[in-house]
Design brief:
The chain is an alpha/beta fold and 495 residues long. The protein is built from 20 helices and 16 strands. α9 packs across α10 and α12 crosses α13.
C-alpha cells in the first residue's frame, strides 16, 4: 500500500469508530435513565477497573495506550450520564482540578460512603466559575486551585487559615466554607512513619497549596526551623546546599509525579543528616526521592496514605459525620494492592514469561514482557538487534521499555535477564512493583535464541547478576513448576 491508501484505511476505521462511539453513547443514555430511576450513582469504580483490566489484557502489546484511551472514554461517558441524570442540579460531590485522568479519588470515596463522586477538570477561568456558581454540595480541590479556592470562600476553618489554602469546600449557611484536610492527611502520614519532628530543621520543597498544610503540621509538631524552597524564592534550588544540615525533607511539588517518573526535585546525598523524607506524590507509589531515601536507609513515606486520610476527613465534612480513622489504613492497603505491579526478574530462560502469563490470567491483569516490547518497537528480533548494533544499543532500548513498564499500574511485568544491572531499571521496577526473583537451576536454563546465553558460562553469569536480583527483589520463588511458581507469587501478593 502507498501512503494515500493507508490514510484511506485510517479514515475508514475512524468512521467506524465514530459510528460505534455514537452507539455506545446511546446505550450510556439508557444506563443513565436506569440509574436515575433507581437513584444509583453515575460512577461504578469496581466495574470501570474490571473493564480497564479486561480491555488491556485482551491486547497486552497496546496496554498503556488502551488504558489511557478507555480511561478518557469512561470520563466522557460519566459526564454524559451526569448530564442526563441531572445530578448536578441536586448538588453532588467531586474533585476539581486541572488534570484528573489518573485520579484515585472516585475509587477511594466509593469505599468511604454511598454517594456519587465525580471528576471536574477545569481551566483557571472555568475553575473560578465552577466554585462560585457550580451545582455542587461538596468539593475537593487539587492542583493547581487550592489557593484560588481559599480566596473564594466566605468562611474558612482555623486549619485552612493556618495553611493559607483549602482543599475541601462545602456549602454552609448560604456561604462557601473551606477547610484543609491535607493537614489531617500529612499529620497522619508523619505519625504513621514514626519520624520525630520536634526540634529538627525541615526543608519544604514547593510553595503551593499543599506546602502550606505541610508547614502548618511541621510547626505544630515543634519543628526547630522550617525552610521553604521554591524556584524563585530567597531559598531556591541553586543555593539549597546552604541548608545541607537539614534533618527532614518534604516534597510538596509535582516533580517526579506520573508521567514524569524518575525525576527528583533534589539530590538527597547533599544532606548527610537526614532522618526523614516525605513525598506527597502518590503516583508512582515510590518516587525517585523515596527510592533514594530507601537506599540510604532514611525513613521515608510517599503520598498514598495522605491521599486516603485527607479523603476520609473530606468525606466526614461532606456527610456531617465522624468516622473511624481505622478505615484509612484499610483503604490505603486495598488501593496499594490494586495499583502495584507484579514484576518478575531472573536469569534468561528461568520462565518469567510463562509464569508471568499464568499469574496475569489468574489475577485478571494485563501482562507485559519488556523483551517483546523492545522487539515491537524496533521491528526486529532481539537476536538481530544484538548482531547489528551490539549490546549497549540493546540496553538503551531496554531501559526505555523497562521505564514504560514501570509506570504501569496493576500489571504483571516480565523483564529481560540483564535488565537489573542498570540502576535506572531497578528504580523503575520498584516504583510501583512487588519484585519477585524467579529462580531456576542453572543447568535447566535454555540457551537457544538468547544472544548472551549462547556459548556463555551461565554459572558465572548467575554469580555476577544474582546480587542485583536479590537487591531489587521483595521475594524469591523457585520455578520447579510454572503453576506452582505462580501459586507462590500470588501468595506473596496477598501477604
Amino acid at each position: 500500500m502507498d501512503l494515500n491508501e493507508l490514510r484511506r484505511e485510517i479514515d475508514r476505521i475512524d468512521g467506524e469508530m465514530i459510528r460505534l462511539f455514537g452507539e455506545r453513547m446511546k446505550v450510556a443514555q439508557k444506563i443513565a435513565g436506569y440509574k436515575k430511576e433507581r437513584g444509583l450513582p453515575v460512577l461504578d469504580p469496581v466495574r470501570e477497573r474490571e473493564k480497564l483490566d479486561a480491555i488491556a489484557a485482551a491486547n497486552p502489546e497496546l496496554c498503556p495506550y488502551i488504558t489511557e484511551l478507555y480511561g478518557r472514554v469512561f470520563e466522557i461517558s460519566r459526564a454524559y450520564q451526569q448530564s442526563v441524570i441531572g445530578e448536578g442540579e441536586a448538588g453532588g460531590f467531586g474533585l476539581l482540578g486541572g488534570s484528573l485522568s489518573h485520579s484515585h479519588s472516585p475509587l477511594i470515596h466509593s469505599m468511604l460512603g454511598d454517594y456519587s463522586y465525580e471528576l471536574f477538570e477545569r481551566d483557571p477561568d472555568g475553575a473560578r466559575e465552577f466554585i462560585l456558581s457550580g451545582d455542587w454540595s461538596g468539593l475537593n480541590v487539587t492542583i493547581p486551585y487550592k489557593k484560588l479556592a481559599f480566596t473564594l470562600c466566605g468562611e474558612v476553618s482555623d486549619t485552612a487559615e493556618k495553611c493559607g489554602s483549602v482543599n475541601t469546600l462545602i456549602r454552609r449557611n448560604g456561604k462557601i466554607y473551606g477547610d484543609n484536610t491535607d493537614y489531617f492527611g500529612f499529620l497522619a502520614t508523619v505519625r504513621e512513619s514514626g519520624v520525630g519532628i520536634g526540634g529538627k530543621k525541615c526543608l519544604v520543597l514547593g510553595s503551593g497549596g499543599a506546602a502550606g498544610a505541610v508547614r502548618a503540621v511541621l510547626s505544630d509538631l515543634g519543628a526547630g526551623e522550617i525552610v521553604t524552597v521554591s524556584r524563585g524564592g530567597e531559598d531556591n534550588y541553586e543555593n539549597i546546599t546552604r541548608h545541607a544540615d537539614a534533618d527532614i525533607i518534604v516534597n510538596a511539588t509535582p516533580v517526579g509525579m506520573y508521567p514524569e517518573n524518575g525525576a527528583r526535585p533534589v539530590d538527597i546525598s547533599l544532606f548527610p543528616r537526614l532522618s526523614g523524607v516525605f513525598d506527597l506524590i502518590f503516583n508512582p507509589l515510590k518516587t525517585k526521592l523515596i527510592l533514594d531515601a530507601e537506599k540510604r536507609g532514611v525513613p521515608s513515606r510517599g503520598g498514598l496514605l495522605m491521599l486516603v486520610a485527607q479523603a476520609k476527613k473530606s468525606s466526614d465534612l461532606f456527610l456531617g459525620r465522624t468516622s473511624d480513622d481505622a478505615i484509612i489504613r484499610e483503604i490505603a492497603a486495598e488501593l496499594e494492592k490494586r495499583v502495584r505491579n507484579v514484576v518478575l526478574v531472573g536469569m534468561p530462560g528461568c520462565g518469567k514469561t510463562t509464569v508471568g502469563k499464568i499469574v496475569a490470567e489468574r489475577l485478571g491483569r494485563p501482562f507485559v514482557d519488556t523483551d517483546s516490547e523492545i522487539e515491537r518497537a524496533a521491528g526486529e528480533p532481539i537476536k538481530d538487534i544484538f548482531a547489528k548494533y551490539g549490546e549497549e544499543y540493546f540496553r538503551t532500548l531496554e531501559e526505555k521499555a523497562v521505564g514504560d513498564a514501570g509506570k504501569l499500574a496493576g500489571a504483571v511485568v516480565s523483564v529481560g535477564g540483564g535488565a537489573v544491572m542498570r540502576e535506572a531499571n531497578r528504580d523503575a521496577l520498584r516504583q510501583n512493583g512487588v519484585v519477585v526473583y524467579l529462580m531456576r537451576d542453572t543447568g535447566s536454563l535454555p540457551r537457544e535464541g538468547r544472544p548472551l546465553s549462547e556459548g556463555a558460562d551461565l554459572s558465572r553469569m548467575r554469580r555476577e547478576r544474582e546480587p542485583y536480583y536479590k537487591a531489587v527483589a521483595d521475594a524469591e520463588i523457585e520455578n520447579d513448576d510454572p503453576g506452582h511458581a505462580a501459586d507462590g507469587i500470588i501468595e506473596v501478593i496477598r501477604r
